[in-house]
Amino acid sequence: MTQLARVTGLSPFHLAHTFHQVMGLPPHAYLNQLRLEQAKQLLLAGHPIATVAYAVGCADQSHLTRQFKRIYGVTPGQVLYHCKNRQD
Predict the structure, then answer these.
(1) What is the distance between the alpha carbons of residues 65 and 77, in angstroms, rounded to a whole number?
(2) Which residue from 4, 11, 52, 71 has the highest number of Cβ atoms inside 10 Å of its Cβ?
(3) pLDDT band of 73, cuts 50, 70, 90
(4) What's the rounded Cα separation, in Å, for the pair 84 and 86?
């Protein structure tokens, strides 16, 4: 964020404030939303949870599971389970 602020000529605070006004979310929440959407797509494609967690930048599988359940109301394991049952 600091580097982007420097490039744009804005202070980090002003850049974050403007981003929030335009996007409706603060930068960190927007980034988390993008990561979780990518995780959902990877899970629906049948990728293992640990691989997905690493691919989207989560520290570990439990971190992904907590964030995923908070946003989507289900765990990544439940998504994989339903995805596999649809294919059978």
Answers:
(1) 8
(2) 52
(3) very high
(4) 5
Tokens representing residue 24 in the block = 């409706």
Record the tokens describing residue 59, joined without a space: 């520290």
* Residues whose CB falls within 8 Å of the CB of residue 78, separated by 6 or more in sequence, listed in order: none
* φ and ψ of 11, to 5 deg: -75, 155
Q: Chain-centre distance of CA 6, in angstroms? A: 25
Mean pLDDT across the chain: 90
- The predicted model gives 14-23 an average pLDDT of 93
Instruction: Work out the number of other CB atoms within 10 angstroms of the CB of residue 88.
Output: 4
Cβ atoms within 10 A of the Cβ of 56, count?
Answer: 21
- Of the CATH numbers 3.40.50.1450, 3.90.580.10, 3.90.1720.10, 1.10.10.60, which one belongs to the domain with range 2-87? 1.10.10.60
